[in-house]
Amino acid sequence: MANLTQAQFAQIAAEVDRLSQQDDVELDDEQVQQILQNLDLPDDLLEDAIAQLHQRRSRIQEQQRHRIVISTIAIMIFGLLTTMAVVYQKQQNRIAQIAAIQDSLTSQKSAKPVTQFDRQKDSQIFYRVTLKNVPINDRLMIRCRWSDSTNQIVHQSRNQTQEITRSPWTTACSTPLTAQSQAGTWSVKMSVEERPISDQTFIVK
Questions:
Q1: Cβ pair 105, 124 in contact under 8 A
Q2: What is the DSSP letter of 136?
Q3: At how many degrees (to 10) do helices 29-38 and 46-97 cross?
């Protein structure tokens, strides 16, 4: 069996591509033989030509399948990222609407708002904040930072609220107080989903 040279196969492949695109169909063996004759190539090259064309067609089909798979994956990833971006933006918009409408400091003994605490009597300080425009059936991450009179951070907390069932919604955080705590003007700052929402100063005696 005679074998095609690279130049001969390139001629055949180019003619096959031209005719296939022209008629939008795959060529059969007789049409391939006709191409050989048109190119003045001997008929004994037919078997090798057909074998190589089949291999070439298989490679092209495999490449097309790979491109389809890659394109499909790319489209899915793009769709997922787009969906995540939309969800994130909606979440950020909801968080931006949250605002504090009331806040107060209380001791562990009473829910009555106070602005001064005694290190000898009060062992816990609570900061209660009422929020409006909170997302119903969702949870929020609450962070509090407590600083003493020297502006040193003495306590930090990070907690998730219970599932929110109504708006306005009251949340709270706390810090311990001991006899060794620094006297003077303290401050507490609350953030919702890392966004500052409320703060207050108070006296520790």
A1: no
A2: T
A3: 110
Q: What is the pLDDT of residues 107-157, one digit of tens each?
A: 987 788 999 999 999 999 999 999 999 999 999 999 999 999 999 999 999
**Beta pairing class for 141-147 and 169-176:** unpaired
What type of residue sits at position 65?
R
CB 159 within 8 A of CB 175: no
Q: Cα separation of 123 and 117, whole Å? A: 9
pTM here is 0.60
pLDDT in tens, 45-66: 667 777 777 777 778 778 888 8
3-state secondary structure of 195: strand
Tokens 């810090």 label which residue? 175
Give the angle subtended at the CA of 198 by the CAs of 196 and 199, to the nearest 5°.
110
